[in-house]
Structure formats: structure tokens, C-alpha cells
Write a structure and sequence with these properties.
196 residues; mainly alpha; 10 helices
Length: 196
């Protein structure tokens, strides 16, 4: 899921930044491929939506309101969301196959409590993922100004990551493997901090 989200973001980035001999067709093909990767990511895990926020921002930021790009955006949105919608309609016929998931959201009313902050930020991110010293580079990466793309894409990715940790509060606190989704954001900001 993380690979597919990053592939979708990469393809969108290439579509909006790289010059081509035939820019219209090449950009449209890359944009549609980005939508396919995003659609498969959503099928793997629906909460991939949190990592896919920058894809839409990058698209809108670059193409704005040209009619060709509006049509492409509609096609990409359908390609991205339709498989998940169809799968959801199909699985609703077999409710015994749908795992209980509501506890992942805020089971035990843990969101924004001391345990939530401790387990996510101190224990998982500070200790297990960044090994204490990485927090320094993470902080530097957050503070330092970036290039044009970084000014929009990185903060939106960070916002998606924070939303994920807030919305899927209990799942993140109870299971450490839920932090796999936050690794790309941490890597980007820690890498940015190392470059200084």
C-alpha cells in the first residue's frame, strides 16, 4: 500500500514537472497511471487515502482549470475510487467477511489523551523509529524551508499523516505496525534535515 501510494505520487510528480516531446498525451498517460496506482493502493488498504492527499494537491496546483485537465481529473477520480466502491458493494453481500474496525478509530476514548501522545510520539516515533537522535533531524527538516514542490507537497503529506494518526487513534496506539504509513513522511523530513 505504501509503495503504491508513493508510486502514485511519483507518477503525478513526473507528469507535472518533466518536459515531454508531446506534453499533452504523455502527461495524461502518467496522470492516469497515477490514478491506477492510487486505486490499487485503496483496494489494498482504504486508509491509503491519507498518503494520497498530496497527489490531488499536486494535480490541482499544476493544472488548475484547463478543460482538458478537468476531464482528466474526472477520469482519474473514477479510476481511483470506482474499484473500491465496487469492492465495498460486493463485500456488503457477505457481512460476515467484514472485520470489526470501529475500535481502530477511538476505542477506549484514547484520542488526544496522555497515552496517545506517549505511545505515538515518544515511544513509537521518537524511540523505535527515529532512535532518539533522529528526532533532531526531523525537527530540522520541519523547520527548514524547502523548494517550491516541498512547500506544498510535504506539508500536505504531513497533514495526511497527522490525520491518519488522529483518526485511526486506537489502532496506532495498540499496534506498532500501523506506523508503516507514517514512514514516508518521516523519511522525507529526516532526509531534509540531514541535507542541512
Amino acid at each position: 500500500m505504501v509503495f503504491l501510494c508513493l508510486l502514485s505520487l511519483y507518477l503525478m510528480d513526473v507528469a507535472v514537472t518533466k518536459p515531454f516531446a508531446r506534453p499533452g498525451l504523455a502527461n495524461i498517460v502518467l496522470t492516469i497511471c497515477s490514478g491506477v496506482a492510487a486505486g490499487i493502493a485503496l483496494l489494498v488498504k482504504p486508509y491509503a487515502i491519507f498518503l494520497l492527499l498530496p497527489v490531488g494537491i499536486l494535480y490541482v496546483m499544476t493544472f488548475r482549470f484547463h478543460i482538458r485537465w478537468i476531464i482528466t481529473a474526472v477520469i482519474v477520480a473514477v479510476i481511483t475510487v470506482l474499484p473500491l466502491f465496487l469492492w465495498r458493494q460486493w463485500i456488503l453481500k457477505f457481512p460476515e467477511g467484514i472485520p470489526v474496525y470501529t475500535w481502530l478509530l477511538n476505542g477506549g476514548n484514547i484520542r488526544f489523551k496522555g497515552a496517545w501522545f506517549y505511545w505515538l510520539f515518544a515511544e513509537r516515533i521518537g524511540k523505535l523509529i527515529l532512535g532518539y537522535w533522529g528526532v533532531l533531524f526531523l525537527g530540522i527538516g520541519i523547520v527548514v524551508k524547502g523548494k517550491r514542490q516541498e512547500k506544498f507537497v510535504y506539508p500536505v503529506l504531513a497533514l495526511g499523516t497527522l490525520l491518519y494518526m488522529v483518526i485511526i487513534a486506537r489502532g496506532n496506539v495498540q499496534h506498532d505496525y500501523y506506523q508503516i504509513l507514517i514512514l514516508p513522511t518521516l523519511c522525507l523530513y529526516v532526509g531534509k534535515g540531514f541535507l542541512i
